[in-house]
Amino acid sequence: MATRVASGSPSEGSRPLLVSTDVRAGRVTVTGELERTSAHHLLDALEALVSSEQHIWTVDAAGITFCDVEGMRVLAEAHSLARSRGRGLVLDGAGPFLLDVLTAVGLHRLVTRPTPGPAPSLRDTTRAWS
């Protein structure tokens, strides 16, 4: 697992972005502020998942404490990147703040909630974005 502190120039009191990549699991964990100076590091981490055998990439968003417009743009671009590589993308663990922001801009379909049974197939994930 690779971990990177991807802090741009955080303002006073802000939390730097911490990005961890688990290629084997097809999972990227993001903690801190997903904002204009650091959000691009999420795409870098997802690009590393190309070598993963997982068909569904997961972004663990439970630790995201702030997300600005650039963070939203990167999340949308992350979805496009996954699709261009023949993969699905799910955003897991989004807190109330992030859920509200995602809903406001129409990206709430990225969020999955745990359900009993097998994991969603690539077809199910792609259909949710169609």
From TrEMBL:
Gene3D superfamilies tied to this protein: STAS domain
Pfam families (alphabetical): STAS_2
SUPFAM superfamilies, sorted: SpoIIaa-like
Domain STAS: 28-107
Name of the molecule in the record: Anti-anti-sigma factor
